[in-house]
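Bumping my old thread because nobody answered last time. Still need a sequence for this structure:
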């Protein structure tokens, strides 16, 4: 483990706390956590940054998933099927991630974020209608397993940031869920993607376990608080947080890229 100052450790733990909250509400906590690790530990290889990020994120995501399952109308069986496909995809993505340079991450994240922002802005009613309780058709479930699970799972293992956000948007679009239920379902899927990617990073020896353990405690607290707030305040609250998160992070990443 590299030498880390107390100030850096405190800032990383604060970022983990806020990232856990964001991730539980609307996904995308990695869009804060990963840049924080990149800035706080600039001399580490990208693979170690990504591996440590996964070790932190899986704890907060698991806590949020448990909180949601207890109180939200989540179809756990469907979520697990999508999650298994996502686990396989994330392991494949993590296998290729070792050759990714840190310099490549920021512009890629900015592009996908701008796409998310445009989609949400052009669809103001997206995900605000509560689901009617009817199960999704077989074709939609298969589509969700292959495209949402496999595709986004691969992205999660390869890059990671924004996976939760993309899962929420994709599940809302494909399965016609409201944003709160989509967030709850996404957490179960995201636990699987994080687990698959983390297993590959651990096998490659690219996880800073001691740092991850400390940050994970704060990420867990943020995740559980965020899940409770999303359940209490509903889809409009989730959509508002989504837009704030996306635009704030686009601005920050643009500043980091060109400053």
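Sorry it took so long. Here it is:
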């Amino acid at each position: 483990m590299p030498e880390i100052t107390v100030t850096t450790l405190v800032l990383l733990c604060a970022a983990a706390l806020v990232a856990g909250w964001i991730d539980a509400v609307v996904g995308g906590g990695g869009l804060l956590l990963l840049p924080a690790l990149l800035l706080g530990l600039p001399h580490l290889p990208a693979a170690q940054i990504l591996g440590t990020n996964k070790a932190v994120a899986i704890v907060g995501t698991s806590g949020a998933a448990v909180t949601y399952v207890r109180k939200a109308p989540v179809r756990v069986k469907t979520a697990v099927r999508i999650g298994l496909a996502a686990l396989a995809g994330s392991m494949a993505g993590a296998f290729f991630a070792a050759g990714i340079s840190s310099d490549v991450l920021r512009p890629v994240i900015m592009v996908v974020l701008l796409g998310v922002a445009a989609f949400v802005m052009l669809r103001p009613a997206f995900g605000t209608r509560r689901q009617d309780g009817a199960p999704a058709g077989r074709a939609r479930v298969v589509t969700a397993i292959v495209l949402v699970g496999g595709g986004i799972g691969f992205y999660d293992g390869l890059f990671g940031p924004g996976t939760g956000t993309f899962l929420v948007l994709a599940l809302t679009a494909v399965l016609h869920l409201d944003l709160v239920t989509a967030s709850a379902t996404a957490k179960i899927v995201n636990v699987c993607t994080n687990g698959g990617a983390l297993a590959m990073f651990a096998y490659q020896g690219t996880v800073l376990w001691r740092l991850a353990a400390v940050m994970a405690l704060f990420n867990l607290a943020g995740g559980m608080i965020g899940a409770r707030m999303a359940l209490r305040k509903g889809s409009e609250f989730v959509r508002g947080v989504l837009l704030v998160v996306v635009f704030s992070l686009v601005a920050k990443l643009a500043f980091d890229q060109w400053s």
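The mean pLDDT is 82. Let me know if any region looks off to you.
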